[in-house]
Amino acid sequence: MNEWDRVERYLGQDALAQLSQKTVAIVGLGSGGGFAAQSLAMSGVGHFVLIDDDKLELTNVVRHVADRRYLGMPKVEAAADLIKQRNPKASVDAVIGRLANHLDKLDGAVLVLAGVDGERSKYEINVAARARNLTAVYAGVYERGEGGDIVLVHPDRGPCYACWAERLRENVAEAIPGETNLDYGMIGPDGTIAAEPGLWLHVVRVAAAHADRALNHLLLGQPIHRDEPANTVILANVALEIFAGITIPPYSAQWIEVDRNPRCLVCGDQYKGQMSLEELTGEQSTQELGTNPGLSAGNIADGQRDS
Ligand SMILES: [Zn+2]
Questions:
Q1: How far is the CA of 166 from the centre of ligand 1 (A)?
Q2: Which end of the chain has the lower number of beta carbons within 10 A, N or C?
Q3: How far does residue 167's CA lie from ligand 1's centre (Å)?
């Protein structure tokens, strides 16, 4: 009996074979990253690099794929075990530490899934992914789990994460201090990130779309691959008004296209990625990141936009 029968009949034999050869790097194995790791393993992805310096604590258990049996264990080792329980053939490189000290671990990957919460960590991934020509997928969960968003960033077109965050995250600089060990970044009304109250079932709706967009990218070239309407999707768990006058009903989604900022300090024409992370995340830089109106929201409901 082929245990992958249900997946293979959906994806196709070639697509499943393709996924089994792919390496995904997941940075941050909290609620979102852990769920994404397990979901990608259950979809047939064959190789994982997991990077996180945190251990599973009691307060994580009600919002994590790993339960009490994994208390005190590094989150990467808990996630590695959960991956192996679903796909014993998967290879997992579990790296206990911070991305900055293990950048070489990204070298064999074809995609980075950012499971981290803080903006600084996302900026680190942005710089590292661009340097290696890796596509990266980022997610954020809004305050109290009321919704969230996912952006897929190509290394060579469209916005980088810094361009994107300048438009979709307010007061980015304020989100940076002390953000290292939070639980799947829920973003407050002023743009700051804190370990917000919220339910697992609301987080994982965003995390499932996060993993699905990563999976879809890994399926490029296969009939099952879908073109996406734009680079960013906003998911509502409750009614959300992200843009003035546009209410997104509960359980629905809105796609938006965020443009590249030509004055971006990471990917802009005059900088070419020469700025240090400290310069990029300082307040001065945040102000300097540009004010180009690059966001378009009203004209995307028809799904005709091409990313
Ligand atoms: Zn940029």
A1: 9
A2: N
A3: 11
This prediction's pTM? 0.84
Distance in Å, CA 195 to ligand 1 centroid: 27
pLDDT tens profile 134-192: 999 999 999 899 999 999 999 999 999 999 998 887 644 343 344 433 445 566 655 55
Ligand 1 center–CA 155 separation, angstroms: 10
Q: How far apart are CA 12 and CA 10, in angstroms?
A: 6
Task: Give how far Cα 158 sits from Cα of 83, 161, 183, 204, 270, Å.
Answer: 32, 10, 29, 27, 16
Does 289 score more than 50 pLDDT?
no
- Could you give the C-alpha distances from 56 to 37, 86, 105, in angstroms and in order? 16, 20, 22
Quick check: helix, strand or coil at residue 260? coil
Domain ranges of the chain: 5-229
Q: What CA–CA distance (Å, rounded) separates 176 from 20?
A: 36
Residue 83 burial (C-beta neighbours within 10 Å; 0-12, 13-18, 19+): buried
Q: Confirm or reject CATH 3.30.70.980 for domain 5-229, answering yes or no.
A: no
Whole-number Å distance, alpha carbon 306 to ligand 1 midpoint, is 19
